[in-house]
Amino acid sequence: MKDVKINMGKIDYFGGCPVCGGSDGQLNIGKIVWGICHKHKKRWLIGSGLFSNWKDETEKGWHRNKELLSTYEDVEPLRNPTYWAETEEYDEVASDELPF
Fold this sequence. Notes:
The protein is α+β, with helices and mostly antiparallel strands. 15% of the residues lie in helices and 19% in strands. The radius of gyration is 16 Å and the shape is globular.
């Protein structure tokens, strides 16, 4: 496979495909939200109940999404460093320095 150069600054807030850094958006199965890359057949868990659009979807649609996602590989997404800082940066902050 040809090496792909990934611009980490262009990765979506909710993560990107570990092969190309891209994202084709999200699919819901009920309240569960998955990030997806159709080209590389990758999926990553974003969370549960984050968006209210699941309420406007049908069980038939969730079943269709579940069937599609069952053919995708579950992966750890790439994270945009602009949004996802390393944990140790926060370990140095004293509680009296927080604004709340």
